[in-house]
Design goal:
The chain has 412 residues and is an alpha+beta fold. Helices cover 51% and strands 20% of the residues.
Amino acid sequence: MILIVIAVWATLFYAYITEEVYDNVDDGLKNQKIEIIRAAYQDESILKTDTFGINQFKITKSDVQVNMDEKNIFKNDLIYMPYDEDMEPYRILNTYFYGKDKQLYQLEIRTSTVEEDELKYDLATALIILYILIIVSIFLLNTLVFHRAFKPFYQILDKLERYQFGKIKTAVPINSNVREFMLLDTEIDKMLDRNEKIFQQQKLFIENASHELQTPLAISSNKLELLLEDEQLTEHHLITISETKEALERMIKLNKALLMLSRIENNQFDFTQTVDFNSVIREACEELADLIEFRGITLEVLEHGKFSADFNADLVKILISNLLRNAINYNKSKDGFIKIDIHKDFFTIANSGKNTALQAENIFDRFHKENTAINSNGLGLSIVKTIIETNKTISINYSYLNNFHIFKIQKL
């Protein structure tokens, strides 16, 4: 847009400058004509100047009939200039006048004028420099002035970007002389505070509800277990009770998972020690060996190094167990494979399964379930992510490579 504006302006400017130059040159030629004619009346020897000399005019007798109303005829011509050794543009005035002897004379006066090609070149060069200066000025203005003026606004944006539920820090008010920025910051702090209170209330409600549900769920499950042993029940009743018990078991697992999340988020696993992850992985594999064998899955564990970190030992067991169960539950129904690679700074748990990548941005969300996860409560990987977030020295990432779903835990 700036380039178009400059181009239009340059065209108008060039036309204006050219017109002004010719107008000034023409005025000079007219003035010179008057002086020459006056001098010719006083000194008739001037009428014998029939070639262009240092005065750049010539006078010749004319026998043609001319319209004296057209006193001044201007034209442009190229004349060789020894100094430049090139043809240069000249402005020529051609006019007629009667001498003292009543003879009609033709007077030609010439003067060098502006070279249009050089003027265009110089103008184009100046415009390119002007365009660069404007762009640089806009960039500097935007970078230095605007960024400085909007610094409080960027601080507010940064505060919003770093905000996470349950992890809000003490709000630090921004310093600004702009009233609107101060109001915006104040209202955002109030909004975050309201969100935190609601979030804490929800966490407390889930924790309390989970605690209260544990006992009646356990009692109901036990009673259904006893009913299944009643030999007087018909097959139809046994199937109905079995289905009810299965649904109840899923509810118990969900309740335990929610309670676990609540306990982790409330920092009830704050004791840390150096944990040997290799040992925990080996123990988890032994505990799940029967399930792995039952599902027909091949398990391969490769220990290239010892992975250890300061962590809560109980959380590490839950972390590894959840990742392994996830690898088992979402593996192929036949000829599945799980490969665990342990290195000094990271370890991976990879499993075969769905032939397309999972939604990496959502798989750690609570209650997120893939279409094939009918019996999942959608909290297993959410618990894994929550456990990882309790420790600032490690991270977890998901990737899909060579038909394997890979979860990589590494030290930061």
